[in-house]
Amino acid sequence: MEDSALREQIDRYYQLWCDATQLYEKWAKQRGITYNTVLTLCTLLSNQKHCTQKMICEQWGLPKQTVNTILKDFEQKGYVTFANMQSDKRNKLISLTDSGSKYATEISTALYALDFYAIGKMGMTRMTDLNDNLDLYLKYYREAEQGNTDEPL
């Protein structure tokens, strides 16, 4: 592929990635929360029996301080509780309270409704292809980043 055509596609990818992120950030802001708060809520909801701050940070690439601030806010609002872990004293197990679970469910349900609409319009095959292609791109990107390529960079 010609360099200019390749650069054009890379630039298009960058713009689409930014557009998608901005859509989610705007959606969160309309609800008086941040995108990082949404990500934290989704992780708490899907890992109710075994969630830690470290898990949230690693899943989304968020700084510890950011997640800590979100979790302390949730604690003040009565959305989460913390418990010491028997196996690892450095980490605390985070659990949603009933009100926290209700809030997280409301947020995630509203978000999924938009995603379901978009996927319904584009079709499951295209959504699967989108995810498969992005997964493949990330595999090769990591390969190049780690210097595990057959070709010079």
Describe the 3D structure:
A hairpin with a 7-residue loop joins β1 and β2. This protein has six helices and two strands, in the order ααααββαα. 71% of the residues lie in helices and 7% in strands. The mean pLDDT is 94. The chain has 153 residues and is mainly alpha-helical. It is globular, with a radius of gyration of 19 Å. It has a two-stranded antiparallel ribbon with strand order 1-2.
How does the SSE layout of this entry go?
Blueprint: H1 3-30, H2 35-46, H3 53-60, H4 64-76, E1 80-84, E2 92-96, H5 98-122, H6 124-145
Antiparallel strand pairs: 1-2
Give the N-to-C terminal Cα separation: 16 Å
What integer is the average pLDDT?
94
Helix fraction bin: over 70%
Question: What's the tally of helices?
Answer: 6
Summary of the model, kept short:
The protein has helices at 3-30, 35-46, 53-60, 64-76, 98-122, 124-145, and strands spanning 80-84, 92-96. The protein is mainly α and 153 residues long.
Record keyword descriptors for this entry.
single chain; two-stranded antiparallel sheet; globular; 153 residues; mainly alpha
